[in-house]
Design goal:
The complex is a heterodimer.
Chain A lengths: L1 E5 L1 H7 L3 E4 L10 H4 L6 H8 L4 E4 L2 E3 L10 E5 L6
Parallel strand pairs in A: 1-5
Antiparallel strand pairs in A: 1-2, 3-4, 3-5
Chain B lengths: L3 E4 L5 H11 L5 E8 L13 E8 L3 H16 L4 E7 L1 E4 L3 E9 L2 H18 L2 E7 L2 E4 L4 H30 L1
Parallel strand pairs in B: 1-4
Antiparallel strand pairs in B: 2-6, 3-5, 3-7, 4-6, 7-8
The chains are: A alpha+beta, B alpha+beta.
């Protein structure tokens, strides 16, 4: 299973903190855009399609082309604003 | 003692200073940066007030990113000790939000490492702020000036690397 976590305003758009979904045919992070479809509002997928959000795989920043391990924890990360 | 502390509770700079003095007895300089929540919106001439920030982070990833930033700073500006304390949760206007402290033998490395750590913390570490005040509530994004600060470090690194290769070329020619 892949666990996908949403943060800050992207969590507000998603309406949920996290989603767990089967790996299925997904190979790369980008494939989540289709895989997440049944679990989150279309508006989130539209926001994510321009790929301006950062993503992480197992706590490391990753690109949308990164491979998805079977047990991946993927973070969908809006621009950060700490400090 | 952890170098990176993410917590809801406020921190006492005096206590942290005393701990660092004890843990870095050979230090000749200790630089502290403490960030506070501004009570006015970050717009020139704006008189509207911020009531509080709501801060969240990505547990696990934030701590490793902060540690990575400290490790990177140590490679550039060797120091005896560096510590990041970053608060999360509800933080009211004028309260402390973040502390970066660096202890080193001489002041230059302490100043530079503290600046490096703060610049990268603001642009890499997985924290998010929601600002709540008279303008309602809004999630804050990355600021251009913070991105430029990190770009300056990257340019500094490129210039340094380029100077190093020139040096090694000179040595090879001899």
């Amino acid at each position: 299973m892949i666990k996908v976590l949403f943060f800050a305003h992207l969590r507000d758009v998603a309406g949920v903190n996290q989603v767990q979904l089967p790996v299925g045919e997904m190979v790369r992070v980008r494939d989540l855009l289709d895989g997440l479809g049944p679990y989150v509002p279309d508006s989130l997928i539209e926001v994510l399609r321009d790929e301006s959000a950062m993503v992480s795989v197992n706590h490391k920043y990753a690109g949308w082309d990164a491979l998805l391990p079977d047990d991946a924890e993927v973070g969908i990360l809006p621009p950060v604003s700490g400090g | 003692m952890n170098d990176v502390i993410i917590c809801e509770a406020n921190f006492d700079v005096g206590e942290e200073y005393a701990k660092i003095c004890e843990q870095a007895p050979s230090a000749g300089a200790i630089v502290f940066f403490v960030g506070l929540v501004r009570d006015l919106y970050d717009t020139q001439g704006c008189a509207e007030t911020v009531e509080f920030l709501e801060l969240e982070h990505y547990p696990g990833m934030t701590e490793s990113l902060c540690q990575e930033i400290i490790d990177q700073a140590a490679l550039r500006f060797p120091f005896d000790l560096a510590r990041i304390i970053h608060r999360v949760g509800i933080i009211h206007a004028s309260e402390q939000i973040v502390m970066v402290a660096v202890a080193s033998r001489h002041r230059d490395n302490a100043f530079q490492a503290a600046q490096f750590i703060m610049d990268y913390l603001k642009t890499r570490a997985t924290f998010w702020k929601k600002e709540v005040g008279t303008r309602g509530e809004q999630w804050l994004g990355k600021k251009n000036k913070d991105v430029s600060a990190v770009e300056r470090w990257q340019q500094h690194d490129s210039a340094h690397n380029s100077a190093e290769s020139k040096t090694s070329l000179t040595v090879n020619e001899k």
